[in-house]
Amino acid sequence: MWEASNHPNRFKLHDISDSHDFVTRVYRTLSAVDTSRLISPTSFWQHMHYGNYDGSLDKEGNPIVPNPVLMEKLMTRGSQDAYTGYGAKWTALRKAPNKWAASCLAANDKAYFNFEHEESAAQPNWTLAEKEPWFKIQSYEWEYEKGSIGRLLDASEWRISQAFQAFAAWESMKKQILIGYDGFSWCSLESGSNMFTYQKPLIDPFGIPKLAYYANQSVFQPIWAGSSNVDVVYGPADHISPVLFNLGQPKTVDLTIELKNDKGKRIDRKIFKNIQVAGGRTVVNLDGFRFKTVPDGYYFLVYTVKEQNPPYRHKE
């Protein structure tokens, strides 16, 4: 894909012709030399004047004459939809998608990408940085925690910091995939910026993956399971609503959902056998259920998908 710019933000200081001219010039320049890749003029479409998928409304919802370039075959859609980032409250994820994304997803015509998603920060393992000049120097991103978590986490709580970034990424990416998002780009993969204090990256300055790295890895599997909502805490009376996502060939799978305590001991489990999953891009909603009465305490849900008769894979 060609992404012509990151997030230029001066379009709204000018009239609509500025957005039209920019999009047209980007498309004509790139399509003249490469017709093999999609084109996105910007990673942040909402900075431009367009208010809906086909450009027939402006950012205020007023009718405008669409720029025909927007509907060219190679032109894709997307934005920077960080539903759990920059200090956002969990409610923002519950309300997703935003109006711009909803318009594009409803059209179901062009791929929609989240070009800079879930921009929450995570502290590194500070014990590895004791001899570094940036040891325990917090990033400008530290303030995000007040909004998303409710307070600042100190350096001794770096594990909690990484855990929040990871589980927020998983829940948000899961929902976005289920409602039709086609791809993601995290900013950025590796640390090092801002004199090593930049904490959004998935890999710390020592090359060690943070927990959110593995959350991204999990959601990009060809098949996975989870809850169909973004609830992260269940009470004794709550139902669990499992969902399966598949991308690729049709398959038959078994799904096991285990209830485990903080020692890893299984307390109960629910098994769904012989689930027929269609090929392509498929979402399978399964019947909701409750686990039997269990002692008071904190428990975790573990989802395991097992494919029946998986295709043979040659080992190199």
Detailed description of the structure:
The radius of gyration is 22 Å and the shape is globular. A three-stranded parallel sheet has the order 3-4-5, covered by helices on one side. A three-stranded antiparallel sheet has the order 6-7-10, with no helix packed on it. Helix 5 (about 160-180) packs parallel to helix 7 (about 210-220). It folds into two domains: about 1-215, no CATH class; about 225-305, Immunoglobulin-like. With about 325 residues, the protein is an alpha/beta fold. It has seven helices and eleven strands. Strand 8 (about 250-260) and strand 9 (about 265-275) form a beta hairpin.
Task: Please write out the topology.
Layout: E1 2-3, H1 16-31, E2 39-40, E3 77-79, H2 90-94, H3 99-107, E4 112-114, H4 144-148, H5 158-179, E5 183-184, H6 193-196, H7 211-219, E6 223-227, E7 242-248, E8 251-261, E9 266-277, E10 280-285, E11 299-307
Parallel strand pairs: 1-2, 3-4, 4-5
Antiparallel strand pairs: 6-7, 7-10, 8-9, 8-11
Helix pairs in contact: 5-7
Overall average residue pLDDT: 94
Strand content: 15-25%
Helix segment tally: 7
- The count of strands amounts to 11
Structure class: alpha/beta
Order of helices and strands: EHEEHHEHHEHHEEEEEE
Report, as a whole number of angstroms, the end-to-end distance. 31 Å
User: Which stretches are poorly predicted, pLDDT < 50 over at least 5 residues?
Assistant: none
Sheet with the most strands? Answer: 3 strands, parallel
Give the domain tally: 2
Tell me the Rg in angstroms.
22 Å
Globular, elongated, flat, extended or rod-shaped: what is the shape?
A: globular
Biggest sheet: strands side by side, in what order? 3-4-5
Relative helix content: 10-25%
